[in-house]
C-alpha cells in the first residue's frame, strides 16, 4: 500500500501545491486586512484564453477597449482576470492608480513586461528597464525637455510651414494623418539626432532616403514587437527566432547607426558646432557621443526615446482634427480665440495662455488619447485601496508577479467623474476644472511622460497655424465613428480625411 502511495505521489504534487498557495494567499490577505478581489468569470479559468480571444476580436473590429469597458460595467472598477495562469488585474480606479504610481511606485515595474519583449529592437533604455538602469536613462533625457528647449520653436515652425504647403486650400480632400506623421518624424529626428529626416522636403523622399526607409522599417519592427508583447514571457524564451522581424529591426538599427557614426566623425573632427544646423542646445545623440563610444548603448538610448516620440504627437494632432471636423461649432469658437492673437509670434508663453485651445487638446486627450493604458508588474506585495469585497470598495492584496493594467482611458470616460455626457466631445467642461488623479493622459508620479509640455506646445502650435490659415474644416470620411488601427497608439484606421477652406 505505501508503495502505491509513493508511486502516485507526483499526481498529488500539483493539487497540493495549488492548495498550499491558496492558503498562503488567504493568510497574507487576512494579515493585510484585505478582502478577496472581484473576479471575472472565465470559461477558461486556468489560462484565460476565453478573454484573450474576445480582446483580440475587439481589437480587430476597431474598438480595442470594448471588452475592458464591458468588464468594468459588469463587475466594477477593479477586476481580477487570469492571463496565461497569472493574475491580471484591470483597473480604472483613480485611487488604485495613484497608489501604484505614487506612494507604492517602488513595488511596481515596467521591466518584467517590457524588457524581454522589446530587447531585440529597443534594447535597454528608459522604456524597458527599472531601477538604476532606468534612472540613468531618465537623467540623460530630461535635459531634452527643459523650458529653453521647448521654447525653441523656430525650426519646428519651419517644418509646420512645409506641411501647410501640402494641405490643399480649395476644399480638396486630404488625409492629415500621414502629413502629421511626416511633420513629427522631421521634428523628432531633429530634436533627438540633431538632423531632421526632412520627410516634408520633396527631394528628401527620394528612394532610399532616411525619410523614406525609416518610417516603413520602424512600423514593421513595431508590429513584430507588438505581437511579442502579447505573448507570455516563457513563450518568448522557447519560440524560434523570427528572422523576418529581426531583419526589420536590423534595418532600423543600420539607419540609427548611420546617424551615430556621422556624429562620431564630426566630433572627432571637432566640427559639431560649426556643422550642426539645429538650434537646439541639448541634442541627445551629441551628448551621448560625448560620454561614450559604445555604439550599442547609444543606439538603445536613442531608440527608447525615438519610439514614444515619433508618432504620438502626430496622432494626437490628428485626433484633435478628427474631432474638430465632426464638431464645426468647436472649430468656429476655437478660431475666434486664435484670430484674437493677430500677427503675434507664436511663443511658448502665448500658446500656453490660450485657454480654449488647451481645453480642446485636453478634451481630445480625455476621449481619444494616443495612449490610454499602461501595464505594470507587481514586484512586492502591495495593498490597493479598492477592488475587494462584494461591492469592490475594500482593499485588495497584490502579490509579486501579479500584473495590473491601468486603463486610464476608461477612467477618462467614467460618468461618475465626468457626468452623463462623458462620451461626448465638450471642451467647455474644462472651464475652471482643476487637474487631479482622475485625469492622467501622461500618467503621473516619477515615470510621468517627460515630454508632456513639449507635446502640448507643439500640438498647440500646429493647430493655431491651421486655424489661422483656414476658415473651415469639414469631415470627408464616410465613417463618422473612430475605428482603432491595430498599432501601439490609438489612431484612426481610416486616417483623418478632411477638407479645408481658405480664410
Ligand atoms: C500625445 C503624446 C504623448 C502621450 C499621450 C504620452 C503619454 C505617455 C504615457 C502615458 C507614458 C507612461 C507609459 C508607461 O509607463 O506605461 C509615457 C511615457 C514616456 N513618454 Fe510619452 N507621451 C506622448 C508623447 C511623447 C513624446 C513626444 C516623447 C518623446 C519626445 C515621449 C517620451 C516618453 C518617455 C521617454 C516615456 C517613459 C518615461 C519613463 O518611463 O520614465 N512621450 N508617455
Automatic annotation (TrEMBL):
Keywords: Heme, Iron, Metal-binding, Monooxygenase, Oxidoreductase. The keyword Lyase does not apply. The keyword Transmembrane does not apply. InterPro entries: Cyt_P450, Cyt_P450_E_CYP52_ascomycetes, Cyt_P450_E_CYP52_fungi, Cyt_P450_E_grp-II, Cyt_P450_sf. Belongs to the cytochrome P450 family. This is Cytochrome P450. GO terms for molecular function: heme binding; iron ion binding; oxidoreductase activity, acting on paired donors, with incorporation or reduction of molecular oxygen, reduced flavin or flavoprotein as one donor, and incorporation of one atom of oxygen. CDD domains: CYP52. Its cofactor is heme. Heme binds at residue 449.
Amino acid at each position: 500500500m505505501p508503495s502505491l502511495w509513493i508511486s502516485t505521489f507526483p499526481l498529488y504534487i500539483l493539487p497540493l501545491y495549488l492548495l498550499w498557495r491558496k492558503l498562503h494567499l488567504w493568510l497574507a490577505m487576512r494579515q493585510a486586512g484585505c478582502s478577496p478581489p472581484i473576479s471575472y468569470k472565465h470559461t477558461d479559468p486556468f489560462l484565460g484564453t476565453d478573454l484573450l480571444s474576445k480582446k483580440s476580436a475587439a481589437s480587430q473590429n476597431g474598438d480595442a477597449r470594448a471588452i475592458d469597458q464591458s468588464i468594468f460595467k459588469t463587475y466594477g472598477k477593479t477586476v481580477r482576470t487570469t492571463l496565461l495562469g497569472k493574475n491580471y488585474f484591470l483597473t480604472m480606479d483613480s485611487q488604485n492608480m495613484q497608489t501604484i504610481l505614487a506612494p507604492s511606485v517602488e513595488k511596481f515595474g515596467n521591466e518584467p513586461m517590457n524588457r524581454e519583449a522589446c530587447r531585440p529592437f529597443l534594447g535597454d533604455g528608459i522604456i524597458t528597464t527599472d531601477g538604476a538602469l532606468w534612472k540613468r536613462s531618465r537623467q540623460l533625457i530630461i535635459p531634452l525637455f527643459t523650458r529653453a528647449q521647448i521654447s525653441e520653436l523656430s525650426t519646428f515652425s519651419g517644418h509646420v510651414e512645409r506641411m501647410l504647403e501640402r494641405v490643399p486650400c480649395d476644399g480638396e480632400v486630404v488625409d492629415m494623418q500621414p502629413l502629421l506623421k511626416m511633420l513629427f518624424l522631421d521634428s523628432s529626428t531633429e530634436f533627438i539626432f540633431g538632423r531632421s529626416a526632412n520627410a516634408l522636403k520633396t527631394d528628401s523622399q527620394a528612394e532610399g532616403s532616411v525619410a523614406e526607409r525609416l518610417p516603413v522599417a520602424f512600423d514593421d519592427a513595431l508590429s513584430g514587437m507588438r505581437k511579442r508583447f502579447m505573448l507570455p514571457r516563457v513563450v518568448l524564451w522557447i519560440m524560434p527566432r523570427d528572422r523576418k522581424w529581426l531583419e526589420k529591426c536590423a534595418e532600423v538599427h543600420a539607419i540609427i547607426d548611420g546617424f551615430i557614426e556621422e556624429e562620431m566623425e564630426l566630433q572627432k573632427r571637432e566640427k559639431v558646432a560649426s556643422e550642426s544646423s539645429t538650434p537646439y542646445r541639448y541634442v541627445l545623440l551629441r551628448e551621448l557621443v560625448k560620454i561614450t563610444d559604445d555604439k550599442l548603448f547609444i543606439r538603445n538610448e536613442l531608440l527608447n526615446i525615438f519610439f514614444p516620440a515619433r508618432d504620438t504627437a502626430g496622432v494626437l494632432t490628428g485626433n484633435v482634427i478628427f474631432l474638430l471636423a465632426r464638431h464645426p461649432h468647436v472649430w468656429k469658437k476655437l478660431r475666434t480665440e486664435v484670430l484674437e492673437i493677430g500677427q503675434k509670434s507664436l511663443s511658448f508663453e502665448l500658446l500656453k495662455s490660450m485657454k480654449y485651445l488647451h481645453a480642446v487638446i485636453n478634451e481630445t486627450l480625455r476621449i481619444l488619447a494616443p495612449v490610454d493604458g499602461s501595464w505594470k508588474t507587481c514586484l512586492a506585495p502591495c495593498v490597493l485601496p479598492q477592488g475587494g469585497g462584494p461591492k469592490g470598495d475594500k482593499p485588495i492584496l497584490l502579490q509579486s508577479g501579479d500584473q495590473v493594467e491601468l486603463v486610464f482611458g476608461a477612467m477618462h470616460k467614467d460618468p461618475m467623474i465626468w457626468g452623463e455626457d462623458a462620451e461626448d466631445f465638450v471642451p467647455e467642461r474644462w472651464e475652471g476644472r482643476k487637474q487631479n488623479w482622475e485625469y492622467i493622459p501622461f500618467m503621473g508620479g516619477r515615470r510621468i511622460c517627460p515630454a508632456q509640455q513639449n507635446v502640448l506646445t507643439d500640438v498647440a502650435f500646429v493647430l493655431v497655424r491651421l486655424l489661422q490659415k483656414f476658415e473651415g474644416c469639414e469631415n470627408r470620411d464616410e465613417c463618422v465613428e473612430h475605428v482603432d488601427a491595430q498599432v501601439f497608439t490609438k489612431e484612426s484606421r481610416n486616417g483623418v480625411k478632411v477638407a479645408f477652406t481658405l480664410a
